[in-house]
Amino acid sequence: MFQSAFRYFIFLIILLHVQPAAAQPGPADNKPWLKDYQEHRQYGNVFVVKKITVKCEKYETWLVDQQGKKLTPAFKDIGDFADGLAEFVAMEGDPNAGQHGFIDMSGKVIVPPVYVSTDRFRNGKTWVIYRAGKQFGLSYIDTKGNTIYKMPIQYFKNDFLISKAEVRHLCGKDTREDVLWGKGRDFYILNFNFSPFIEKEIKSSKYIYHFSYQGKFGIIDKNMILKVPVALDDIDPTYEFSGQGMERVKYGDKFGYLNVFTGDMVTPFEYTDTRKPTNGLFWVKKNNRWGCIDKSGKTRIAFLYDEATGFTKEDRSAVAINGKFGHIDKSGKIRTPLKYDFASYYNNGRSMVRIDDKYGYIDTTGKFIVEPIYDEALPFDKPTTTVERTWLRYKLDLKGNEEFNGFSYKLNAVFILIGLLIFIRINSFFFDRFRKARAAKAAKKGTRV
After folding, report:
1. Is residue 354 part of a domain?
2. Are residues 418 and 381 in the same domain?
3. Which phi and psi angles does 15 have, rounded to 5°?
């Protein structure tokens, strides 16, 4: 399905999203040690406590037990627990200062602090953002820190650059952060949070779900895993140019393909043009040459051809190199030599070919069924076709039998032109006679006066 994404101010939506209601601030009357801290939240038998020296600038956070015993070293911040884990941010001085990880309720580090940004766990998974060369990348991990899915960020080399990113968080809440990219008045992000209504629609989709934001498109699956970031310039959810389980998508001025069932990228964005797939193969153009890939993205026919048509039921495609046309089969084997000035696709077992400005028809073996004697011709899209020679038009059947069908369009045009000239000549003749008669009548009238 395709959904036009809601407009919203991303920074506030991301940072102010509703947190789980497990925290229990409560009074500190029976926990006198809580008075040593400016903030605290209770999760069962443990507390997250924070000591603030300078608001929004200098603060420390710990996980402690009911007696106030510290279960962790000082962290910059600790978020809310969900699925038994809480996000934390490493303190200054730590080798991973400012990075994000996860601890359990005993204070044990389950996911090391190696991520630039993340969020609480939902249904056993969460997203994480990390440095990937010149870009920020995004993956999904489980509660043990294992990677569930790694977004192929390398395909989107012009976006999500570290040099153009801003990492922001709420005052004193380092676990309420996100990575933003400004474009004009809009912000773009790697991760997306959806409203409950949209989330329900996504989960009910049959396969992948297309959505848009500010003219860009993203792909998410029914498990709420963002498979393709909001960076695509065009998609093809109606499969006008797609098929065989692959959808054509566009990034910048290049095309690539993704799996319509999973949303996984199958090919990089490296094609300047494509054909709708036929017989399991996709004609794609790279470096000004056409070649074929299959639904796994594997090259099946080398990128050799200047022109190419889709494969027909005859297992033939018309191809051209340096202005000479012929035919190949799905294995790439040449079945009719590339020697014609033009060759059409096969249909009804026939291909129209041109040699020295004359058209004829060959069968799948390359044998001429109709010699090249016609001035104009059309392919056999039906069991009969139309041809012209010596200004006459014929209906031609698959065996080469002719049936007169009128004059050629060119000859008809000549007849029309001749008729028009005759009409102009006759009209001019009568107009001259009328003009002369009128002049004579006027002269006669003047003589009487």
Report:
1. yes
2. no
3. -80, -25
Run of H or E residues at 140: strand 135-142
Largest Cα span, the chain: 139
- Residue 367 — φ and ψ, nearest 5°? -75, 135
Considering the entire predicted model, what is its pTM? 0.81
User: Could you list the residue range(s) of the whole structural domain that residue 428 is in?
Assistant: 411-448
402 and 356 within one domain: yes
**b/e code 387-414 from CB counts within 10 Å (16+ = b):** bbbeeebbebebeeeeeeeeebeeeeee
Q: Is there a single domain that holds both residue 319 and residue 388?
A: yes
Q: Specify the pLDDT at position 25.
A: 54
Provide the 3-class DSSP secondary structure of residue 280: coil
Q: Spell out a b/e string for 327-360, using b for 16 or more CB atoms within 10 Å of the CB, else e.
A: bbebeeeebbebebbbbbbbbbbbbbbbeeebbb
How many domains does one find in the chain? 2
Question: What's the confidence (pLDDT) of residue 447?
Answer: 58
Buried b (16+ CB within 10 A) or exposed e, 132-157: beebbbbbbbebeeeeebebbbebbe
d(CA 258, CA 249): 7
Q: Are 304 and 297 in contact (CB under 8 A)?
A: no
Q: Do residue 354 and residue 425 come from a single domain? A: no
The residue among 12, 176, 166 whose CA lies nearest residue 78 is 176
How long a stretch of residues is the chain?
Answer: 449
Integer Cα distance of 312 and 248 in angstroms: 21
Q: What is the pLDDT of residues 322-359, one digit of tens each?
A: 999 999 999 999 999 999 999 999 999 999 999 999 99
Neighbours of 308 (CB within 10 A): 22
Pairing of the two strands 2-4 and 208-213: parallel
Choose among 377, 324, 385, 373: nearest CA to 349: 385
- CB contact at 8 A, 10 and 189: yes
Cβ density class 74-97: b for 16+ within 10 Å, e for less = bbbbbbbbbbebbbbbbbeeeeee
Whether residue 439 sits in one domain with residue 346: no
